[in-house]
Amino acid sequence: MPPAPPPMSSLRIAGTIPESIVDGPGFRFAIFTQGCPHHCPGCHNPQTHDFNGGRVVSLLALMRQIWQSRQHIDGVTFSGGDPFCQPEPLWHLARWCHRLRLSVMAYSGWTLAELRAKPECKHLLEEIDILVDGRFMIARRSLETRFRGSTNQRLYHLSRGQVLSVE
Fold first, then answer.
1. What is the pTM of this model?
2. What pLDDT score was predicted for residue 2?
């Protein structure tokens, strides 16, 4: 197994799905972070809004689960809640996932521009390969947008913090 995370690293999560086919391209290990300030009406995961809900897990425990799934998955997805509310532990996890040659995808209610304006999110954003940004808007809900819930949300293909394409 690759190197362990920094000591005492933990993450508050609502849950995981070891082999999801709806949380990004291919088979993905999905991590649903706990805590979201956006409270979008019609949110698919309203149980993840409470910052005190869910449970605290060590990054090492998550790494072990991903390690066990690594031969059956194409990547890891950080969903939520809003993963960018816990950027430091997810940055460590994303870097580790890249060492395993797994892609990293994230969802956020903030736009890419808003995330770039948050200094605490800089390092995590640099490790994201695919980003879905923007709040879910029930009035713009669509079942035809790839990996997105509403048409205002954008899907970015990123590389080292640079936008490669937008869908």
1. 0.92
2. 52
